[in-house]
UniProtKB/TrEMBL annotation:
Keywords on record: Membrane, Transmembrane, Transmembrane helix
TM region positions: 28-53, 59-80, 92-118, 124-144
Family indicated by similarity: Belongs to the multi antimicrobial extrusion (MATE) (TC 2.A.66.1) family.
InterPro entries linked: MATE_fam
Name recorded for this polypeptide: Protein DETOXIFICATION 16
A matching Pfam family: MatE
Any single GO CC term annotated in Swiss-Prot or TrEMBL for this entry: membrane
GO molecular function: antiporter activity; xenobiotic transmembrane transporter activity
Top-level taxon: Eukaryota
Amino acid sequence: MASALDTLCGQAFGAKQYHLLGIYKQRAMLLFTAVSIPLAVVWFCTGQILLLFGQDADIAAEAGTFARWMIPALFAYGPLQCHVRFLQTQNIVVPVMVGAGATAACHLVVCWVLVFGLGMGSKGAALGNAVSNWINVAVLAVYVRVSPDCKKTWTGFSIEAFRHALGFLNLAVPSALRVCLEWWSFELLVLLSGLLPNPQLETSVLSIR
């Protein structure tokens, strides 16, 4: 869905309507948060959903636990993509790269502490994704707030972000469906592999691609 920002922010920046970039970013963050709520419900029920599709009980339980601990990462991913697209459409790419690099370094430490230090296993790996994504969001948000490069495009929060949501969705939804159809074509193979005689082996092989 964040692909809509490439179009809208690019047009606004090219037309020198710099204040619109900040409004588009806020609008996208609000809509992505709203969309994340039903997705979080689906993730919370992943274990039961997989059982309905005939998956192995142990695999479904483990996948369901992992998905539940990934829910905080879901709410971080939307704001993260909004900040990335907001900066990239202004030709500001170095801070995005530095933020991603710093986050990757932190991710190693966070995952080790959660997975091994605290003994959380796969739950720690899922939670580590959330922590790292929120760190990346915080780094980019601070940059946008303090950098002189964003003074024209980020003027603070605006009530205008709550308007014209339909126009944004007209661009965002088709973009999201295009990506989802591509991803689902691969994920369907993993789902079907769980119906084979040795689901633990088959799913582990097909999930690595």
